[in-house]
Amino acid sequence: MSRELVIRVTHHEETGCAVLTVRGDIDRNSSPLLREAIGELVSDRRVRIVLDVEGVTFCDSNGLRTFLSGMTSTFEAGGWLRLAGVRGHFERLLRMTDLYNFFSIDADVPGSLEHASRGGFRPSG
């Protein structure tokens, strides 16, 4: 049974980051919602994005494509995208597809925000 995708956006003015908290399944039906949320942030010039994926219960190839295109669009706009809270199924998927080291990953959102406050982001990829 599929878990509905829930996306919440919070802005952290002190670091200039937008945090997208993602919960549920990311598949061919729900990945357009995530792509749209990232696209809206990039359009609004909020290109320092942390994706909190701790609550992701499933991700298929459509979801992976969405993460990759999000990373590309933020980079092209002069920003970056980091993943926070990669665990379980999603971590196994990233490792299986050799994408785990392709993304910039932190243990949790506070870790990502700490990197942002120090300006310590390495380019993804």
From TrEMBL:
Domain STAS: 7-116
Pfam families xref list: STAS (PF01740)
InterPro entries noted in UniProt: Anti-sigma_ant (IPR003658), STAS_dom (IPR002645), STAS_dom_sf (IPR036513)
Superkingdom in the source lineage: Bacteria
SUPFAM superfamilies per the UniProt record, alphabetical: SpoIIaa-like (SSF52091)
A GO MF label: anti-sigma factor antagonist activity
The family this protein is said to belong to: Belongs to the anti-sigma-factor antagonist family.
Name of the protein described by the UniProt record: Anti-sigma factor antagonist
Species the sequence originates in: Streptosporangium roseum (strain ATCC 12428 / DSM 43021 / JCM 3005 / KCTC 9067 / NCIMB 10171 / NRRL 2505 / NI 9100)
Organism ancestry: Bacteria, Bacillati, Actinomycetota, Actinomycetes, Streptosporangiales
